[in-house]
Design goal:
Blueprint (H helix, E strand, L loop, with lengths): L1 H22 L1 E2 L2 E2 L2 H5 L24 E7 L9 E4 L2 E4 L9 E8 L5 E7 L6 H9 L5 E8 L8 H9 L13 E7 L9 E4 L16 E7 L4
Antiparallel strand pairs: 1-2, 3-4, 3-11, 4-5, 6-7, 6-8, 8-9, 9-10
C-alpha cells in the first residue's frame, strides 16, 4: 500500500511538472492563459461588437436599435438607431417628459429629435410634432420622469396611429419605450411599459428603467 501511494504521488508531481512545462513555458517565453485558451489566429483580436451594443446582430435590411427610458428623475434616457446615439445625457438633448427621435425608415438617416415636458409644458407642441410626421418615418420614444400628466385624447390617438398599444393606458410616472412608424399597418411589436406602483417601484416614486433593443425592418419602397 505504501508503494502504491508513493507511485501515485510521484505520478501527480510528474503530471504537474509536465503541464507547467508544456503550457506555461515555451522556449523560455511565458504563455498567457488567454493565449492558451484562444486559437492563435484570434489571439490579440477583439471580437466585433453589434450595432448599438445589442446582444445580437441584425439581419440584412434591418436596423439595430436600443431605447432606454429614464431612471426616476435622475438619469436621463437614451436612444440609439443604426449604431448612432440620437439622444442621451451626453448629447444634452433630453428633457423631462417624452423624448422622441424621428428616422427615415428607408435610409436610416436621422431626421429630428425633440423632448416635450408633459408635466408643465404645452401639449399643443407635441400634437403639432406628431401631426407633421411623414409616411415612412420611424419614431422612437423614451419617457423620463413623468410623461402623462399633459397627455390628452388627441395625442394618445396620434401615438396609437403610429402603432402604440399602450399609450392609451399611460399614467403618471409610468415608464414607456416605443418604436413605431407612420403608415404602419397594425400594431408595433416594439413596445414595453412599467406602471408606477408604490408596491413594486424600484425607486421611491418611480418604477425601474426600461431597456428595449431589437431589429427594425427597413421600409421597402
Amino acid at each position: 500500500a505504501g508503494i502504491i501511494r508513493f507511485l501515485a504521488l510521484f505520478a501527480t508531481l510528474l503530471g504537474c511538472w509536465f503541464i507547467a512545462q508544456t503550457y506555461f513555458e515555451s522556449g523560455g517565453r511565458s504563455i498567457s492563459l488567454r493565449s492558451w485558451l484562444a486559437p492563435s489566429s484570434l489571439a490579440g483580436q477583439q471580437l466585433p461588437q453589434n450595432k448599438c451594443g445589442n446582444q445580437r446582430s441584425c439581419p440584412t435590411k434591418h436596423f439595430a436599435f436600443k431605447i432606454i427610458s429614464g431612471a426616476a428623475n435622475v438619469v436621463g434616457p437614451s436612444i440609439c438607431f443604426n449604431d448612432e446615439v440620437l439622444m442621451s445625457n451626453v448629447k444634452n438633448n433630453i428633457g423631462r417628459g417624452l423624448n422622441i427621435a424621428l428616422v427615415n425608415g428607408t435610409s436610416g438617416k436621422p431626421l429630428k429629435t425633440a423632448s416635450f415636458d408633459m408635466y408643465s409644458g404645452d401639449v399643443q407642441q407635441l400634437e403639432t410634432f406628431l401631426q407633421e410626421i411623414k409616411d415612412g418615418t420611424v419614431i422612437l420614444v423614451a419617457t423620463y420622469d413623468d410623461a402623462a400628466t399633459k397627455m390628452n385624447g388627441k395625442t394618445r390617438k396620434l401615438f396609437s396611429e403610429l402603432g402604440s398599444s399602450y399609450v392609451k393606458h399611460l399614467g403618471f410616472r409610468d415608464n414607456w419605450v416605443f418604436l413605431g412608424a407612420k403608415g404602419l399597418q397594425g400594431k408595433s411589436p416594439f413596445e414595453e411599459h412599467i406602471k408606477n406602483d408604490q408596491k413594486t417601484n424600484k425607486y421611491d416614486g418611480w418604477p425601474e428603467l426600461l431597456e428595449m433593443e431589437g431589429c427594425a425592418p427597413r421600409k421597402q419602397d
